[in-house]
Amino acid sequence: MLDYKLLEALTAVVECGGFERAGEALGLSQSAVSQRIRSLEVRLGQPVLVRTPALAPTPVGRRLLNHARRVQLLERDLRQALPTLTSEAPRLRIAVNADSLATWWAQAIGPLCREEGVVLDLVVEDQDVGLRRLRDGDVAACLCASPQPVAGARALPLGRMSYLPLATPAYRERHFPEGLMEEALRRAPAIVFGPHDQLQHRFLASCGYHGPFPYHLCPASEGFVRLALAGMGYGMIPRMQVERQLEQGELVSIAPGQALEVPLYWHSWRHSGKLIEQLTDALGAVSLT
């Protein structure tokens, strides 16, 4: 039989990123948290955390994290059935890509969070790598571009987000007066969301260009748009995020008629309780275009 206080300590250490902060979250000393982790490792006969070069769960630790998060959700259902049990606001740790967070996400899940008193711990992650968070037991669910669920989970298709290669009219005239010529693509500064973002590379490949190009790194959706509006570069921006700027001509496509369609899937563990089911239903009603 697992001691869930030990699992609670493991979850806190991973989520808080260290023993001291985990102790603060649990109301324990750092040494007490360390002792609980050691007790868990002694009971299992193997480590649950790697301490160096960076703190991270081992494969066994990830399996325990997955189990602990699912138990937390199931316990919420039990508290609803037995109101005499003490109950805290349910907290869901979810990986969401920044562009969804900047556009449709809040409107989709806001009503459920208000009605059920849910609080979210959102991990902002690129849509191409969010599934890794779920596989590692770091989150209870995620949005990502992969249709293939991990073992024990399910994937719900939500639709597609349309990305356009946008810049200011002045930027387009300065860098691409004759269209998307190879030399222009080699020299014109782009804007890339982060080291895992491949949208810019996919766009350039669709134009037949596979060489190097200068770019700004900007891991924030709002900041990304602001850099483009400031004429600092061109980048792949969700159409739904800049409809007003497109209508007013503040941003224009450097390749009219071209777009990248990025599919989005909602991944969650099976048998994780009523709350995940409700959240899945709310997201299933979303219509992405």
TrEMBL record:
Keywords: DNA-binding, Transcription, Transcription regulation. Transmembrane segments: none annotated. InterPro entries: ArgP, LTTR, LysR_HTH_N, LysR_subst-bd, WH-like_DNA-bd_sf, WH_DNA-bd_sf. Coiled coil: none annotated. It comes from the Bacteria. GO terms for molecular function: DNA binding; DNA-binding transcription factor activity. Residues 2-58 form the HTH lysR-type domain. NCBIfam families: argP, PRK03635.1, PRK13348.1. Belongs to the LysR transcriptional regulatory family. This is ArgP/LysG family DNA-binding transcriptional regulator. It comes from Halomonas alimentaria.
